[in-house]
Amino acid sequence: MPSFNSSGVEINYVVEGQGPPVVLVHGFTSDIAGNWRATGILGVLIAAGRRVVALDCRGHGLSGKPYDPAAYEGTAMADDVIALMDHIGLHQADLMGYSMGGFISMSLLGRHQGRFSNVILGGVGDLTASRARRDPRAMAEAMEAPDSASITDPTARTFRLFAEAQGADLKALAAMQRATHRRDWFNSSLLGDVNIPVMIVVGESDHIIGPPEPLVAAIPGATLVRTPGDHVTALMKPQFRQAILDFLAQHSPVLV
User: Where are the domains of the chain?
Assistant: First the structure.
């Protein structure tokens, strides 16, 4: 698969399909394969006549995995998305992020709104509650723990188990959690001037995220869709895929 250098880190990506472009940003401990291929989302987007651009975020998948928290500081992970778009000559696209990718997408929405036509934020909720549920230090310690059985924080343990199942680099994930990038991701004041269509889609049994209603209220004109499933299983449900297709069909139709 192709890759490029973004501020010293090699970023793996794919470009597949033809039609209106949509950029996909996966969640923490996942990658292109786990978040988008295995769930069928990448496939249905291509079948619907769309060009899919997806990256393995730094620290994940086949991309570079720095062990220095400084490599993940500030807006570095969001900046990789813009660097990828520039690398392939893509000026504007639709954007979808899930979980961590949803927060990265919020950063992009607040700072680079002009690069995106429509935005889908999946698996994200109230910013303050989400931060409380996923304490960075607890997450880092979970990734560094000798085994998952010793982890007492239930949310951190869930992510550690998922990371192990994905064959992820635990040391790189711990370094990411020890960075201070969340001060940018959770800056809700950046979202008040949004003037493009935004959908927030969450699993109705997702107890890892906070309630999505405050986030919906913070983004002018944003809509909320709930689908079956929890933080992991919602992605695999046909209703989740259909919500994506319906939103894009309404706001970014494929012209034939």
Answer: 3-251
